UniProtKB/TrEMBL annotation:
<dbReference type="InterPro" id="IPR006748">
    <property type="entry name" value="NH2Glyco/OHUrea_AB-resist_kin"/>
</dbReference>
<keyword id="KW-0418">Kinase</keyword>
<dbReference type="InterPro" id="IPR011009">
    <property type="entry name" value="Kinase-like_dom_sf"/>
</dbReference>
<dbReference type="Pfam" id="PF04655">
    <property type="entry name" value="APH_6_hur"/>
</dbReference>
<dbReference type="GO" id="GO:0016773">
    <property type="term" value="F:phosphotransferase activity, alcohol group as acceptor"/>
</dbReference>
<protein>
    <submittedName>
        <fullName>Aminoglycoside/hydroxyurea antibiotic resistance kinase</fullName>
    </submittedName>
</protein>
<dbReference type="GO" id="GO:0016301">
    <property type="term" value="F:kinase activity"/>
</dbReference>
<keyword id="KW-0808">Transferase</keyword>
<dbReference type="GO" id="GO:0019748">
    <property type="term" value="P:secondary metabolic process"/>
</dbReference>
């Protein structure tokens, strides 16, 4: 018998463990291999086999997904080692209506998903990353990595982040990477996928919405959209409007730091961050 790859070995073990009858490869990402599988009466499921280099971080997210029990998120049926057996969802993402002129509807749907994810639940999963730790790249970046004309933006984003962490609020488990294209349409409504598994201030959960959906900087950099989104999230979720905008600005700075470290363009964050800072100042 020829040597199997790690993915093939994990797949054949999963097929036996969960009595799966059919598997179709769907995607290979930098973090995982994904298969569509069938199991008897249950029509379709997804198998996500984590790559060793990211299994600690992705495993933390998978345990959080399991803890949500399908409420606002994709259902995890079981986890074994680095293999996650979960609900198959093949609807479009929340980015689609947002990019196609229905952004207000998308903002309301986003708020509903967050309300479901943040519903009080007993205990919490082990090993969640503290939110402050997630921000290390923002605090550790050398300002000289930023374009000369944008260094004041970096300084302000980092300063706001420090201020937010100096005045902590109640903390809870956070998806930690919630954006429009991480929310999928299903027959159960809009469902979140791919959480990071953080623990901290609930205001942070909305931060990524302000710099998304991907590929629409004219939309998300619009000051009117920023204000309308802050109004909706604050009203629908009972969150502090200034703190929402503060985390949005801080996260935009953090994302730019990650992109600079990876050699990627930060043009999107340079478009939105000045307007987030301005909205924060006015809040």
């Amino acid at each position: 018998m020829m040597n199997q790859s790690p993915a093939e070995t994990a797949l054949s073990r999963a097929m036996i463990r969960w009595s799966l009858t059919k598997s179709t490869p769907v995607a290979e990402t930098p973090r995982s291999w994904i298969f569509r599988v069938e199991q008897g009466s249950r029509s379709s499921g997804a198998l996500k086999i984590l790559k060793p280099s990211v299994s600690a971080e992705e495993g933390r997210g998978a345990r959080l997904l399991q803890w949500y029990e399908g409420d606002g998120a994709a259902t995890v049926f079981d986890i074994h080692g680095d293999t996650i057996f979960m609900e198959w969802i093949d609807g479009g993402t929340l980015g689609d209506p947002s990019r196609n002129g229905r952004d207000d509807e998308a903002t309301n749907a986003f708020a509903t998903v967050v309300a479901n994810l943040h519903r009080p639940r007993p205990d919490r999963p082990d090993g969640l990353m503290p939110l402050r730790q997630r921000f290390e790249a923002l605090f550790d970046t050398d300002v000289r990595a930023w374009p000369h004309t944008a260094r004041d933006l970096y300084a302000r984003a980092a300063g706001i982040a420090l201020k937010l962490f100096d005045k902590p609020t109640a903390e809870l488990p956070l998806h930690g990477d919630l954006h429009h294209d991480n929310i999928l349409s299903s027959d159960r409504g809009w469902l979140a996928i791919d959480p990071k598994g953080l623990f901290g201030d609930p205001h942070y959960e909305l931060a990524n919405a302000f710099r998304n959906p991907q590929g629409s900087p004219t939309l998300y950099a619009d000051p009117r959209r920023i204000k309308a989104m802050a109004d909706t999230f604050s009203a629908r979720l009972g969150l502090n409007r200034k703190r929402l905008l503060g985390f949005a600005a801080a996260h935009s700075g953090l994302s730019a730091c990650w992109d600079l470290a990876d050699g990627n363009s930060i043009i999107g964050d340079l478009a939105v961050l000045p307007n987030l800072l301005s909205a924060y100042d006015q809040a």
